[in-house]
Please model this.
Amino acid sequence: MKLGLYSITYLGIWYRGPALTTEQLIDRAREYGYDGVELDGKRPHANPLDMPAARCRDLRVRAEDAGVPIYAVAANNDFSSPIPEHRESQLAYVRELIRMTSDLGAPVLRVFAAWPGVTLGSNGASYEAARRVWRIAHHEAGDGQAWDRCRSALAECARWAADHGVTLALQNHPPVIDDYDAMLRMILEVDAPSLKACFDAPLAARQGVTAMRQAAREVKGLQVLSHVGGEYERDGDGSVRGFVRHPDGSLTPEDFYLDFLRGMADIGYDGYLGYELCHPLPKVEGVTVGIEFADLNARLAAEYFRGLLAELRSSSRELSTAAPREYRH
Model:
C-alpha cells in the first residue's frame, strides 16, 4: 500500500488562510514523504473548467518528475436531486472530470452518489447550510426515488469512464450511501466493470463498523482507492498518536486503522491510502487555526501511517517464517 496526500487538506476552506496552488501541493507531498497526490475536483485545484488538456499534461509531468504522481481525482457530485436541471449539470461535471482524469494520467475518479456540498463564509467552511438545503429538497420530493436517480447517473458515468480508461470509485459516503453495505449494493446494481469501491475506514467507523478487518475483506476485488483522516500529535517519547475529532469538538483516539490495514492486506490491496484533513478545525482564542495546523497534521499523518504499514509488514514476515504448528488429535 502507498500513501497519498488528498488536496482537500490544502484547499483553504477549513483552516484560516489561502489554498495552496497545485504545484505547491505537489511540493508538500514530496517534502512530507507521500507517494502521490489526489486532486480535489473543484477550484482552485482541479475543476475541469480550469483544466484543458495542456494544463493537465503539464501537471502530470510536474507531479511525475517530483516522484509524487497524480493517482486519483475526487468528484464532488450529487446525482440525487429531484430537479432534472441540477442532475444533468452534475452529469456534465462528472463527464468533464472523467476527461480531465484521463488527461492527468490518473487511473481513478472518486465519486459520490449524493453530496450536499459545503458553504463558505467569514468563519470558513460549514456543512450545515448545504445539508439543510439538501434535506428540504428531498423532503418535498420524497426521497424514495433518490437511490434510483443515483443508480441511473452512475451507470451513465460508468460508460463514459470505460471509454476513457478511467475507473470510478464509489465512496461509502452519505447521504444515500449510508454505509458500506449500501456502497456494495449500488456497485452490484450498476454492474459495470468501470465502477469499483472506495471503502474508507473513518467513514465506516462513524457508521458503526466495529469489525473493521472483516468489513475490509468484503470489498475484495472491488477496492481501488481509500482515504484516511484524523488529527495527530507527537507524544513525549517521540511516537505519533492519531485522534478522531467529533462534531462537538471532542477528540477520541483512533483504534481501527491497524485492523483496517490488515483487512486491506488480506484482500491484496496495494493501492493508495490518501490522507485528508477535511472537517471543521479547532479555534484558538476564537480564531480558526491556520495553514500551519494542516502542515503539522499532514507531516505527522505520513509518519503515523508509515509506522503502521511497517508494523503490518513486520507481522506478515513473522507469520510467513514461523514454524508450522503441530496438531495433535
Q: What stands out?
A: Residues 216 and 263 are 5 Å apart (CA to CA).
